[in-house]
Structure formats: structure tokens, C-alpha cells
Write a structure and sequence with these properties.
The protein has 369 residues and is α/β, with parallel strands linked by helices. The protein folds into 2 domains: 201 residues, Isopropylmalate Dehydrogenase (3-Layer(aba) Sandwich); 152 residues, Isopropylmalate Dehydrogenase. The protein has 14 helices and 14 strands. Helix 1 packs parallel to helix 14. The protein is globular, with a radius of gyration of 21 Å. The two termini are 14 Å apart. It binds 3-isopropylmalic acid and manganese (II) ion. The site of 3-isopropylmalic acid has 4 residues, from helix 5.
Length: 369
């Protein structure tokens, strides 16, 4: 019997309603695999945790996460006005999310940007630009760079307010993410784009140097160096040229949202945040407070995060593929939630019905893990 302990951090906004669908899917997977048991451990995280306990990443949650084999996280954050009720250092991003990334050293963030040809109507790009569909993966370094560098604010000698924020990487950090990227490229089309800004930033000069060094161990992978600003353009003009892209933290934050943009929605962007011992899985999008509680948010990125977890933490590769296929099948049958539909010719269904249909489609597929 394979027993997996999963910490469930539903979070804020649409997080809890998406988490319900993730749990529904996990139970369906469990039912299909008599030798697999998921031990689900809900815990408070984010603004919801702050209002209940005074901490956005409470000790009890840390303990549950420490003991878990993997962490499944919903969404966090509130509207700007609501966040103002929380002290700056306890606001969910600074008080919960970044500390979690640091605690488990989840340095490798995988953000698949995927849209099969049949669903290209979701994308704002023209059909001829999309070609056979969109399929690349952004690998973002997640625990270094500007996000975690030293920060200072104050008054300088001229009496002016100033800020000093450090972008720092050492070669080991770059080497670690480079290896992950090369291995991923090796398992796909063997082309790796290193995204950089080495015409201005010294950090990018070192980045590319290390990419080149690590690349010597992966002679079958072709490396292409592309400036981050040019990459932003080509993601719109010709996304088909990309397969695996690796980049530092801040570039990855920005380009992965652009990835969501070319798919048509961040609602189509699940992600995996992988550390040496523990990984957590989350939608790349925010908590959408404007539609929270309305049962209209699409659970694709949440259920996609479950699919990534099955594959990357539990080695259930085939069931993970089945889950992707099941989700695509629901869209292909013409169903969609209102948040993604935006005037398209689809059959509108709610969040929970979308989850039900994913389970239905999953159960049509053979169990061969
Ligand atoms: C993301 C998010 C986070 C980030 C925020 C919520 C701190 O935008 O995961 O991309 O900037 O990393
Ligand atoms: Mn982001």
C-alpha cells in the first residue's frame, strides 16, 4: 500500500472552492487505485489564516506541511483594500508564500504552458500563430534573485527616500536550476532557451556562463540564449519555437503570466514548485476575490496541479496523463465555466460540475499505473 500524506492549503478567495474539486479528483484517483491511499490534511494558510490565528503561515500549518509528502495549495491574497487590514509583513505573499518557498527550498518552479490545437479558441493569438497548439514549459528559479535579496529603504544623505534591493545568485543556485532545465529538455524536444538580460545585468552574464558549463554534460541538448525582452515578443509572435525555457525568479514571474496570457487565461496555468525534499503544487493565478464563492472559477489549474503532483511526487505518471486528458475532454465536449467562456460558444457549467465531469472522463480511461 502506498500511503501519501498531502497538506491541503485551500487559502483565500476562490482557493477553497477550487480545493474542493481537487479533493474530489484525489478521491476518484484513490478509488481507481486500491493500492494507493491519500491522507488529506487541511490547514490554514494566507489571509484566512491571519484572520483566524494572527499569522498567515501559522505554526500548526508549518507542522502539517513538514510532515506531509507533498503540499497542495489553493490561491492566496485579498483585494487591495482588504489586504490593508493586515500588517505588511503578514500579508499572505510576504507572510506565507515566500516563507513557504524558503522553508522547503522549492527552487525549481515548473509552469507548463499548454493548449492543444482543439482548444486554440481560448487563445487571443491567431490560428496561424498557434499552429499545432501551444506546448512549452517555463522553468523559473524560485528562491533567489530580487525576491529574496537584501532589502533596505530609508533616507539618503540628500534627504531623499531611497530603496536598495539586491539581485544575488551564487553559482550553485544557478547550477541547480540549470540541471533541472537540461534534464527537462532532455525528456522533451532537446532545445533549451536560456532567458537573460546579459547586455545589462551582470547576474545574467554569470547565469549564461553556468548554463554553458552545465550544458557540457548534456551534449544532446541545444542551448539558445535569448534576451528576456525579445523572448516576451517571440512568445506572442511564434510560441512554437519554444519548448523549455529557464530563467531567474523575476523574469519567470513575468513571462509565466505572459504564458497564461497567450493561452487566454491564467486559469489554464497549473504549477509545481519543487525542492530537494518537498514540493508544493499550486495554480499560477491569484485568488480572484471578485468571483470568490460564486462557483464560476475554472478548476483546471488546480486539478492540473494535482496532475503534476501525481507525476512528480508520487510517480503516478500514467494517471497524471489520464487526468490531463480527462480535463481536455471536458473542454472538448464543449463545456466551460463562465470565467473562461467570455462570450464563446460553449455550454456553461459551474466549478463543481466541471470537477464532476473531469471525474466522469477520468473514469472512462483505463487504469494502468
Ligand atoms: C506567482 C505569484 C507570486 C510571485 C506572488 C503571489 C508573490 O505572482 O507565484 O507567480 O510573484 O511569485
Ligand atoms: Mn506571478
Amino acid at each position: 500500500m502506498n500511503r501519501y500524506k498531502i497538506a491541503l492549503l485551500a487559502g483565500d478567495g476562490i482557493g477553497p472552492e477550487l480545493m474542493q474539486e481537487a479533493v474530489k479528483v484525489l478521491k476518484a484517483v484513490e478509488a481507481r487505485h486500491p493500492d494507493v491511499a491519500f491522507d488529506l490534511k487541511p490547514a490554514l494558510f494566507g489571509a484566512t489564516a491571519y484572520f483566524e490565528t494572527g499569522k498567515s503561515f501559522p505554526e500548526e500549518t508549518k507542522q502539517i506541511c513538514d510532515e506531509a509528502d507533498a503540499i497542495l495549495k489553493g490561491t492566496i491574497g485579498l483585494s487591495y483594500e482588504e489586504s490593508q487590514k493586515i500588517p505588511v509583513d503578514e500579508q499572505p505573499e510576504r507572510g506565507a508564500l515566500l516563507p513557504m518557498r524558503r522553508r522547503y527550498n522549492t527552487f525549481a518552479n515548473f509552469r507548463p504552458v499548454y493548449l492543444p490545437k482543439a482548444l486554440s479558441y481560448f487563445s487571443p493569438l491567431k490560428e496561424e500563430v498557434i499552429g499545432d497548439g501551444i506546448d512549452f514549459v517555463i522553468i523559473r528559479e524560485l528562491v533567489g534573485g530580487l525576491y529574496f535579496g537584501e532589502k533596505q529603504t530609508g533616507i539618503n544623505e540628500q534627504g531623499k527616500r531611497y530603496v536598495h534591493e539586491v539581485l544575488e545568485y551564487d553559482e550553485d543556485q544557478i547550477r541547480a536550476i540549470a540541471k533541472v532545465a537540461f534534464e527537462t529538455a532532455q525528456s522533451r524536444k532537446k532545445v533549451l532557451h536560456s532567458i537573460h538580460k546579459s547586455n545589462v545585468l551582470k547576474s545574467s552574464v554569470l547565469w549564461n556562463e553556468i548554463i554553458g558549463e552545465v550544458g557540457q554534460d548534456y551534449p544532446d541538448v541545444e542551448v539558445k540564449y535569448i534576451l528576456v525582452d525579445a523572448a516576451a515578443t517571440y512568445l506572442c509572435l511564434n510560441p512554437g519555437q519554444f519548448d523549455v525555457l529557464v530563467m531567474e525568479n523575476m523574469f519567470g514571474d513575468i513571462l509565466s503570466d505572459q504564458g497564461g496570457g497567450i493561452l487566454g487565461s491564467l486559469g489554464l496555468m497549473p504549477s509545481a514548485c519543487v525542492g530537494p525534499e518537498k514540493s508544493y503544487y499550486e495554480p499560477s493565478h491569484g485568488s480572484a476575490p471578485d468571483i470568490a464563492g460564486k462557483n464560476v472559477a475554472n478548476p483546471y489549474s488546480m486539478i492540473g496541479s494535482v496532475a503534476l503532483m501525481l507525476d512528480m511526487s508520487f510517480g503516478m505518471k500514467q494517471e497524471s496523463k489520464n487526468l490531463w486528458q480527462a480535463m481536455q475532454a471536458v473542454f472538448a465536449a464543449g463545456y466551460c465555466t463562465p470565467d473562461l467562456a467570455k462570450g464563446k460558444d460553449v455550454k456553461l457549467i459551474h466549478t463543481d460540475a466541471f470537477g464532476d465531469r473531469v471525474v466522469e472522463e477520468l473514469n472512462k480511461l483505463p487504469i494502468n499505473d
